[in-house]
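Hi there, hope your week has been kind to you so far. Would you mind checking whether the C-alpha cells look sensible for this chain? I owe you a coffee for this, so here goes:
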Amino acid sequence: MAFTVAVLVGVSVGAGVWWFLRGTSIGSRTPADPAPALTAPSTPPRSPSPSASPASEYRRLQDPVGYSVDIPRGWTRSEKQGRSAPVVVYDAPSDGRRLQVFRIAEDTPAQSLALAENDPGYGFARQPGYQVLDRARGTTWAELVYRYDDADLGARRVVDHRFQAADGTLYAIRAAGPASLPPTLLREPLTRALTSFCPADTECR
C-alpha cells in the first residue's frame, strides 16, 4: 500500500484543513514537529490486512470517519471539522505526543505537503523557530520532518507524512510531540498507523 495526508482552515480542502489545525493543539496553535534522526524509509511500508492482530500495546480502531488504524492503547480520540474535511486527533495522555489524520485535496502528496509548508498565508514554515530536519518522498508519498517553537507547548517536533491509501484516496498522518522526546518515540506510533491504515470497504495487504 502507499501513503497520504494537509491540515485546517484555508481556501482549498487540503489548505483549509491545515489552517484550521495548524498547531499542535486542535484549532488554535501551529503544527507539531520532529527530529533529525527521523528519516523516512526508502520505500513506504505496506498496510496489513485489517484483520491482522495489532501488537498488545496497540488497539485497532474502526474510525467513524472511514478507515481502520492501530493506535496506542490509552490514547484519546477527538475530532474537528475543517472547512471541507474532518481532522481526527489521537492524543497520548502522558507525554504530549499526538497523531492527526485527515484527507487531503491536492493532486499528489508532494504537492499537498509543499502547499502546507510554503503557502504565504498559512504555511507552517512561518512558525517561530521553524527548522527542516529531514525530507523524503516516493512515487505515492511525501514526508517532512521539522521542529518549531509553540507559544504554549514549547519546542515541538513534527513528522508530516502524506500518502495514497489503498483505495487511491490521499491522506495525511502527522505525528507531533515535545522536541525533548527521543525520536523513536515520535516515529513509532506513526509507523504503526501507516502500516495498519486501511480505508473502509477496502482490502489492504
Observations:
- The beta strands are 58-63, 67-72, 76-81, 86-91, 98-103, 131-137, 141-150, 154-164, 170-178, 198-199.
- The two ends are 7 Å apart (CA to CA).
